[in-house]
Write a structure and sequence with these properties.
This protein is an alpha/beta fold and 130 residues long. The chain folds into 2 domains: 91 residues, FAD/NAD(P)-binding domain, CATH 3.50.50.60; 31 residues, no CATH class. The chain contains 3 helices and 7 strands. The strands form 2 sheets. A 4-stranded parallel β-sheet has the order 3-2-1-7, with helices on one face. β1, α1 and β2 form a beta-alpha-beta unit. The relative contact order is 0.18. The mean pLDDT is 95.
Length: 130
């Protein structure tokens, strides 16, 4: 049973997971290389309020920080961070987001936006490709 949880990524999923694990009584550390959580999704004042709320809940925020490595130890997992810091945790969750792999679709001449564009039938811009 993991008591100490490290969440890598301060986006929507990472922030939600931090709240959920905190509510479940876990010691939560959230690390992100941005200066604020939800930096690319929210205005700074909204991000600031959410950071304050997470901190009040007991989440330890490590912003402008990067995970350098993970090593299994007898008592958990040693997470090595930048600036010669490290923390020991029981579980690590990567919530760093997803990027669609669109290279093949692009080479096939399909319409690409944030991924491959499809209609309500999942048909691409090529009528023979679903």
């Amino acid at each position: 049973d993991a008591r100490r949880v490290l969440i890598v990524g301060g986006g929507l999923i990472g922030s939600e997971l931090a709240m959920d694990f905190c509510r479940a009584g876990k010691a939560v550390t959230l690390i992100d290389n941005a200066a604020s959580i939800l930096a690319s999704l929210m205005p700074p004042e909204v991000s600031s309020r959410l950071q304050h709320r997470l901190t009040e809940m007991g989440v330890h925020l490590l912003l402008k920080s990067q995970l350098q490595g993970l090593e299994k130890t007898d008592s958990g997992i040693l997470a090595t961070l930048d600036r010669q810091r490290s923390i020991e945790v029981d579980a690590v969750i990567a919530a760093t987001g997803l990027r669609p792999e669109t290279a093949l679709a692009r080479r096939a001449g399909l319409t690409i936006n944030r991924g491959v564009c499809v209609d309500s039938y999942l048909q691409t811009s090529n009528t023979d490709i679903y």
